[in-house]
Amino acid sequence: MEARKALPMPPSWPAAATALVEPGLTLAEAMLPSHGGVGYRRRKHKTLLPYHRGLPSAPLCIVVDLDETLVQARGECVQPRPYIKEFFDLCHTEGCEVVVWSAGSPSHVNMVARAVAKASQRKEWFHYIISRHDKWYRGEEDTVKDLSVLDRVINRVLMVENNPRSIQRYPQHSILLEDYNQPTAQDNSLRIISDVVRRLLAVLRDTGLTANATVPSLLAEDDALIDLSFCFSGPSNRKKRVHSRGLRYSPQTDFACRSYGGEHPLLHQRNGA
Q: Under CATH, what is the fold of the domain 17-217?
C-alpha cells in the first residue's frame, strides 16, 4: 500500500513547506500521482535539489542509498545496519547535509525511512529524499546516480552506496559498502564510514572551498579504504568498467566473497585487502 502520510519536516523549514514541497525531493510521497508528479515532469531545469533550501553551504553533502547499504529490507521487514545511529549522529552533529537517493518506489522508500528514523532515534535524519522517478531513473539496468544534478559543490559531495552500477558517473566521489543482505550485529561498516567522514570534515573545514583538498583526493589517500574494480554489462550489453574506493574492512573472511550490488570486485590495486 502506498504511503501517504508525510514524514516530519525539519524545524528549519517553514510550516507551509508541507504544501509547497518540491515534488520528489523532500518526501518520497511527492512522486506519487496525487502529489504533483505531472507538474514535476514539467519542470524545465534538470537539478534535483533546490539550492535555496536544505543545507547548500554544509561542509559535506552525504548522499546515501537505502537497500543493502543502510538496511536490509524484505517486504515490510526492515533490518538497519549496525551503527546506523552513530553514523547519523555524526552527520548531524557536524552539520552535514544528508540526501537519500534510492531507486526504490516512493512507498517503499518511505517505509524504510521510517524504520531508519526509529533505529537512529532521529525523526529528522535526512534533508531530502530522491526516490524512483523518470526524472532520473531509466530502469533496472540503468540506475546511475549523476551527482551533478544535485546542484551542490561537487567536490563537497560524498556518495555512500553498495552498487557499482549506481556510481558510474562519479566513482571517485563514492565509498562502496558491501551488500547488507544477512542481518548481523558483527558488521562494522558504518562505524568505519563514520571515521572516514570525520577525517574528511577535519580537512575540508580547514582548507576552504578554494584549496586543493577535495572529496576524491581525500578518499584516495585514506588508509581505511582500498581500490575496487568492476566489469559488468550495461544497457545494450555494453561492457562497463568502474574503479572506486571501498572499505579495507570486510565482514567476509575471503576477498572473493565480497559482493557489491551483486557484483564481485575483479581486483584491488593497492593497499591490500
A: Rossmann fold (3.40.50)
